[in-house]
Design a protein that fits this description.
Blueprint: H1 12-17, E1 20-25, E2 30-34, H2 39-52, E3 56-59, H3 65-76, E4 80-84, E5 87-91, H4 102-105, H5 115-122, E6 124-127, H6 146-154, E7 158-161, E8 167-170, E9 178-180, H7 196-209, E10 213-217, H8 223-235, E11 238-240, E12 246-250, E13 261-264, H9 269-282, E14 285-289, H10 293-299, H11 301-310, E15 321-324, E16 334-337, H12 347-354, E17 360-365, H13 374-380, E18 385-388, E19 391-395, E20 407-408, H14 412-422, E21 427-432, H15 444-450, E22 454-457
Parallel strand pairs: 2-14, 3-13, 9-10, 16-17, 20-21
Antiparallel strand pairs: 1-21, 1-22, 3-5, 4-5, 6-8, 7-8, 10-12, 11-12, 14-15, 17-19, 18-19
InterPro entries: Enolpyruvate_Tfrase_dom (IPR001986), Enolpyruvate_Tfrase_sf (IPR036968), MurA_subfamily (IPR050068), RNA3'P_cycl/enolpyr_Trfase_a/b (IPR013792)
Function: Cell wall formation. Adds enolpyruvyl to UDP-N-acetylglucosamine.
Family: Belongs to the EPSP synthase family. MurA subfamily.
Length: about 450
Amino acid sequence: MTMTTTASAWTATDSLIADSLLIEGGRPLHGDVRVGGFKHALVTVIGAAVVGRAPVTITNCPEIEETRVLGELLRRAGGLVTRRPGSLTLTLGGLRDEPLDPALAARIHGAVYLVPGLLARFGRVQLPPAGGCRIGDRPAGGRPVDQYLAVLTRFGAHGQVTADGALSVVADRLTGCEIDLREFMADPVLLSGPLYSGATKTAILAAAAAHGTTRLHYPYPKPDVTELVRVLSAMGWSIWRPDPTQLVIEGRPDRGEPRPVKHALISDLIEVVTWATAAVVTGGSIRLSGLTGGALAAGLAPEITLARQMGLRWEPDGTDAVVVGPTPPDRPVNVTVASHGIYSDSQPFLTLLATLAPGLSHIRETVWQNRFSHVPELNRLGTRIDLIGDAARITGHHPPVRAAKRLSAADLRGASALLLAALRPAGMTQLTGSHHLARGYQDLVGDLRRLGARISAEPTE
């Protein structure tokens, strides 16, 4: 096997094509990385553009699979989609009532957030089975879809979800309503579960498209929701919080045309966690720039608190840059990943970091039941992690110490955590399933190479 070492030899296009990477570990990472815009906010802002019809320009827009696929779906439906480096402009007043391309929709999960706006316009939507990470409880790990239909029925729609996850929904008119989103929590005590985030975002988009007033109780509190509310407010919707547990949205169909907006996405919170982990795991030092300091500190507050407890320091300092690494954690952790706390997307990285810490760490996952697919693969690198129900027990001071002939990644964050883990031990590791990376990172492999990593694409047969 030949290892290509010239950073310029790798392009972002390679990262979209390659499904197998060769990783030569044992090198600390050093240098600068500019963090892109937040993927989870991007998909809902695009959903808002469908609801609003007025031109929406998204800046700090990441060049990821979600951007490409959603843009192409809307272009094929008659929308004017303009992509420039770092920006996406959507002018969607001329959308046509056409079915969404199933091959495109199957490549991502975010197409579901087009549904409320399309339903309000045309009275019917058929959404093919969605793609994305296979971390749910449907066949083959498919993520749940029923919550989207359940929310839309509260606004007057009706429809069905097929066994393979396709959604068909119709509505003569969407009407404002009242929803207690605790109904969509698997654990109402922890305020957590896999349906909660998507149900909240769908409810907000449907409320914006509906006639009348909608009152949401206990909406999902994370920045991807607050960014959606900011965009809709800028477009002219009246949205307010009577108290911290409620969100009230005045529908707009009878209130005139929405305003055009230009919205800069906040920094991708999970990308920050990724780079902080990369620095610590490889014993390097990475300067992250382009950060939205205040939003970042608020959005990652649970992760920052946990980092302090572990003896790490990766909190932003109020500027647009921060240096992370190389000090390893000096204390174990006992943490529950929940919708009102640490992002489930952060969990694979925290699991990896805990292998460097002393003592026994415990990480419980209450959002996605299949979010531990990376654990058996990490153990092939020499970690000692046991899965007990919905939790991982990590024996500390057993980080990745040996290369593995072959690792297999089953989802986006698992793939990135395994890639970082393979960079620690000396030797060559092959990682398959690396195509998942294109859905969450603009060019993770290229950025790692520019920081000193030796990674090449394994030719496919």
